[in-house]
Specification:
74% of the residues lie in helices and 0% in strands. It is mainly α.
Length: 405
């Protein structure tokens, strides 16, 4: 199949979507749903319009760059004053809710997939624990939702994938037999500190110097026109790449860096972030389209009732019960707890993680890929369709004062 045929399909699809994107954003149908199913339909298990010879590393790189840019841009728009008032919500979600979610996913997987080894089950639970910042944008940007709830969801989705990286690496090393029992304790102690510490440090330093440089050059008139939108994209990628290079978490670097950059950038913030948001939209389109053709479509052959049941429970009970438990003691309405629990979409982080696991060639690879692919696909559909109407209904029911004071 000609590479120009593949390019034609991608270009025509991107063009058609872009000219109606603003209209579609006002409907329950999210862009990710359209991208995913377009990829499945056009791929080798559909109309065979494209034969995407994408290897796992290629898909992983695309998903990583997309996620890094989305995290940086989203955190740069965070309202730090509001977040400071509601800081205990994301703190509990990350420090209590996230471990409980991994534990619940592990117990469910241990019961349902007897063909998986114990550390493969742990990998599955970890891959599906982090939520997706990009898929949650319909809620995070909806002003009918109380601001402290939106900011809490934004911070949770921005940091939980970076926190899960060292946990995944430990389980992956154990599942593939790369470490002995004596080395496990050292690995558990070293990786989280290294990933989080290096990532946060790189994000803060890179964002600080980048922000100073952008402000200085803008004041001198050295940045203008189309070039105004380029520096933030490059800065986000620099945060990610440097952190990964020295052994830290690039995702934490991007989120922390973006938050500092947003706090330091008082003027022209929207203007300089437009380029990052536009580039992120294009990369998201390509990522979900490629995922649909490369992973979701082929995983149809592995679809079973166990996969479907696990996917449904992963998006509901496994996510919502830990959220409600970790919020005990915080004065909050029940419908707010349900709202926080439901809007935990799975997406780009899970794709990055499954590709990392695929490269290890574990015995349970086929099952792991199928479960993650279909959980993500179901999440795209369920959360995409429910985001706008649920946010509107919740916004009407709950005033801002009904959250945490």
């Amino acid at each position: 199949m000609s590479e120009y045929q593949i390019l034609t399909v991608l270009a025509v699809f991107a063009f058609l979507y872009s000219i109606v994107a603003s209209r579609l954003e006002k409907t329950p149908i999210s862009g990710a749903v359209i991208y995913l199913f377009a990829g499945m339909i056009c791929g080798a298990h559909g109309l065979k319009l494209i034969d995407m010879n994408v290897d796992a590393d290629g898909l992983s790189t695309l998903a990583e760059l997309t996620l890094s840019l989305v995290l940086f841009a989203d955190s740069a728009t965070a309202d730090l004053a509001v977040l400071n008032k509601a800081k205990w919500i994301p703190i509990r979600l990350l420090l209590i809710g996230l471990p409980l979610t991994i534990a619940a996913g592990f117990m469910l997987g241990y019961v349902m997939f007897d063909q998986l080894a114990i550390f493969e089950v742990a990998l599955l639970a970890t891959m599906l624990a982090p939520t997706d910042a990009a898929l949650g944008q319909a809620v995070v940007t909806n002003e009918s939702v109380p601001s402290r709830i939106r900011q809490s969801l934004n911070v949770e989705s921005g940091l939980n994938d970076g926190i899960c990286v060292p946990v995944l690496l430990v389980f992956l090393a154990l599942a593939s037999g790369q470490v002995s029992g004596e080395e496990t304790a050292s690995l558990i102690a070293r990786l989280p500190l290294q990933a989080i510490g290096y990532g946060a440090g790189v994000g803060l330093l890179t964002a600080f110097f980048g922000s100073v440089a952008i402000r200085s050059c803008s004041g001198l008139g050295w940045i203008s026109g189309a070039w105004t939108q380029v520096p933030v994209v490059a800065l986000a990628f620099a945060c990610f790449a440097i952190a990964q290079w020295i052994g830290g978490s690039g995702f934490i670097a991007c989120f922390v860096g973006g938050m500092l950059f947003g706090g330091l950038t008082k003027s022209q913030k929207e203007e300089v972030l437009n380029g990052a948001e536009g580039t992120g939209n294009v990369l998201s389109l390509l990522t979900w389209f490629t995922f649909g053709a490369f992973a979701a479509g082929p995983s149809i052959d592995q679809l079973s009732w166990q996969v479907v049941v696990y996917a449904i429970l992963s998006l509901t009970v496994v996510r919502m019960a830990p959220v409600m438990l970790c919020l005990i003691g915080i004065p909050m309405r029940f419908d707010t707890q349900v709202f926080l629990g439901w809007f935990g979409p799975r997406g780009l982080a899970s794709i990055v993680f499954i590709v990392m696991v695929m490269n290890a060639r574990l015995p349970g690879n086929d099952t792991l890929v199928a479960v993650v692919a279909w959980t993500v696909a179901l999440s795209i559909i369920a959360h995409g369709i429910s985001a706008v109407p649920f946010a509107k209904v919740y916004g009407r029911r709950v005033a801002d004062r009904d959250g945490v004071e």
